[in-house]
Amino acid sequence: MDRAHKGPLVIGIGNPWRGDDGIGHAVVDALVDTPGLATAKSHGEPAELMELWQGHDPVILVDAIVTGAAPGTLHRLDAREPLPRGARYSSHGIGLAEAVELARSLGELPDTLIVHGIEPTYLKDAADLSHEVRESIASAVSRITDDLAAAMHGQPPCTNRAGSQHSN
Amino acid sequence: MSETRTIEVDYLARVEGEGAMYVRTEGDRVEEVKLSIFEAPRFFEGFLRGRDFREAPDITARICGICPIAYQLGASLAMEDVCGVTVDGVLQDLRRLAYCGEWIESHALHVFMLHLPDFLGYPDAVTAAKDHPDMVRNGLRIKKIGNSILRLLGGREIHPVNLRVGGFYRTPTPDEVRGLRDELAWGLEAAGEVAEFLATLDYPNLERDYEFVSLVHPDEYPITHGRLGSGSGLDAAIRDYDDVFTEEHVAHSNALHSHRSDSGEPVFMGPLARFALNRERLTPRAAELAERAGLGAACRNPFRSIQVRMIEIVLAFEEALRLVDGYRAAPAEPALPVTPRAGTGFAATEAPRGICYHRYSIDEAGLITDAKIVPPTSVNQPTIEADLRELVQTHLHLPDDELRHHCEVAIRNYDPCISCATHFLDLTVERQ
Hints:
The complex is a heterodimer. By secondary structure, chain A is of the alpha/beta class.
């Protein structure tokens, strides 16, 4: 396995043609010019995600997360704890949580892997991002930048921010 | 008084696409079995109409993220059939190599991530990976090799863009192709070991009297071309497909059901069918492993389809290595010129799950006037339901939870690609 250190990576997960499912890609678009930061976009297939983050650390995943909270609510999950599976936790039936847990089983999880989720308003075909979700991009970017800075400087990332909800 | 039981699975786990299962029994008799494919209709055939014939490979490649080559190449071959062009030689070899990549990545996804947990006794691959990390890790690496073939020949792994009517937009350099070799050699060995391991597992005893249908070819295990063959002596050209099979709508599914036009009987396509009808044309290592696994001349046990898929992965690695070693120089042109002419063209290839049939009509300007695409899952749907009926009938004594689990495992045997099978339903409005 390639254990070469490739630095920080943010992966946006989702389908930009399906309303707020495109939020992961939109956040990555907002981060794409950050110096020293690698970014990628994915539909969320587990093997692809594991392939993308191989050798990177810290790694941030951004996806729409459905918990029933108000649209635009930001969620933050630290993969040092097992991610909840089975529920419609990610916007993808299989994908993000499975990829993380599979990588954990195989000992291929980055030391720092944080999932940032944004509660969607709707996930319908051929729709743009909703107003609420578009408004949340700046806050999501700010939190991701904070996490990256903390991880890069060896500070323990904050695990319990206001507004963060876990779905179990 | 007879007791009525209904077993429903609202969302089938670990299959491609969204489907459900419904079983109703009365006393000791199974009354109704429905595999419902409710993934939305996809209208591909509709929106191909009016498009240029050269666009069909790129449009149809979007039908499936798992086996796009079946659509991209099928559409290309059908258009070449209309226009009287035959692609052979090096370009044909590259097409077969691309398809080997698709077989490897698609079969590996099913074997390792979706199906194997059932036989190892785990609810999913994530849990299985805790106890069998090397098996899952190797499975992912095998799948990745398939993806890398697709990336080289298709331009990208998902929804490739490099195959076209007449050949390719760009052909790889011999160095690029040789770059695949080391991983292919590793994959052949690793896949062989997995095939041997699978032969040691316990499988339920179930023999089904399928009418197997696959492509058949006198010289090679069929992937990219051949004639329609069956266990009951069917031997027909691809252009006769619509005479051999009839499709019809059923109320409970967004996929069309297929059956033999002459007998009305359902047929079964896919790895078991290919294996049974082309056993003599397996590559050497695949043949040896099939022999050692005790699969015989044909395998009629759907639970053992995981073994046959693994044998086909071995075959695809052997074929890929042969084609890589034979690629000495890029062809002078990446594609043959294809000039449109009015007519109807036909093609069928062996997608990982069975025959994928294409028929297109174009006018003299090359605009598509009609399109028909039949993926194997919709053809297999009546057979899957018939198998479930028998399985439930023989396991009626089990509590609902166990029966439900048996049915789910059984459905995964067929590796149904439900998203591919969804079809456009004609809407008929009757006015008084």
